[in-house]
Hints:
Blueprint: E1 3-7, E2 11-15, E3 20-22, E4 34-36, E5 43-45, E6 55-59, E7 68-73, E8 79-81, E9 84-86, E10 91-96, E11 101-103
Amino acid sequence: MPQVVIDNTKGLHQKTGSxxxxxxxxxxxxxxxxxxxxxxEMINFYQANGGGGTAITVLTTGASTGQIAIFANNSGNTSTxxxxxxxxxxxxxxxxxGTAWVELA
Length: 105
């Protein structure tokens, strides 16, 4: 069985392998930023400088109902995603319910 891949360049396609893969976009270090998720993607954020916490605001403009995003806090500092605490070394799983981004975990 071929591997099914979704990415922002080719869309839905197949390649050698097995399973289902959704390509991710690594936005690198986000510091006190507003994030536009109008294109479905997984987000990885971290604080490269090791300073204080980072506040991330996920915008609803252009978001699609059912869209899912994972925010991984790879720093040793506590950060927030839409006001919810994300401790260093943990992640936040959110989805868009058509009105707002809702935290799942």
